Request: fold
Amino acid sequence: MTKARKKQFDCVEVKRRAQGAISKELEGHSPKEQYETIRQLAEDLPLWKELVEGRQKTGPHPARAPSKRRKAG
Reply:
């Protein structure tokens, strides 16, 4: 039988703390204000910037691009 190891990093705990902090910050704000706050937080992340730059180079995702089908009629 193996001994249980002590975790050096608890991902779930970190996630819960982060969500708690975000919830406190958004508390009492309208849905629109919450959206804007989350958007601002996301825009400051390096991953967000990388995703936006990639989208600018390649264009929108095909599933989200406007349909080129003609309307029947």
Q: What stands out?
A: The chain has a mean pLDDT of 82. The two ends are 72 Å apart (CA to CA). The helical segments are 11-26, 31-43, 46-58.
